Amino acid sequence: MSRIIAGAAGGQPLKSVPGDATRPTTDRVKEALFSRLESWDLLAGARVLDLFAGSGALGIESASRGARQVVLVEKAPKAASVCQQNAALVNKVLKTTTVSVQRGSVDAVLDSYVNAASGLPSRTFDLVLLDPPYPLTESELAVTLQKISKILAEDATIVIERSSRSPEPQWPSQLVNFSDKKYGETHLWFAEPVEV
């Protein structure tokens, strides 16, 4: 069973997506990731975008630890339904409407943000979390990263969770990888916008 590890809603159980269509982040990796994000002071007051959200556990952990807005993006109907239930739970515990869910493909949601981004600073995100399905090709991921680069705050951070057997993502010219870490079968990649 998945749970919120720490923060204002720490210890709350989360619903899991039935079947094996998603690959939940282990508590060990989640704790290491969020310890690192907190040490970099990236969570308090952040606007967070959780792509390929699955159950929404990563975005919801961000909300529990102080993010001011979290958007969970999930296309699969069962997973999106679980995201809705988990978002409702954490919003009730936090007594806020911090977490919302966008049902649809990641690229369609990103396209809508990119199209709205001109003149809308409210569409800039401080932290983007991606846990794409392993079958997503590196070139498809590169297209997604290109779109993400257009909706980031100046000092934003992107975290990509991939199989430790996957190659380094193909970063668009607007993003630079600044760190990575392996945890068994999981490899986390960290990137930020290139300074203009």
UniProtKB/TrEMBL annotation:
Keywords: Methyltransferase, Transferase. It holds the Pfam family Cons_hypoth95. One of its GO terms (molecular function) is nucleic acid binding. Its EC number is 2.1.1.171. The keyword Ubl conjugation does not apply. Residues 1-23 are annotated as: Disordered. PANTHER family: METHYLTRANSFERASE. This is 16S rRNA (Guanine(966)-N(2))-methyltransferase RsmD. The gene is rsmD.
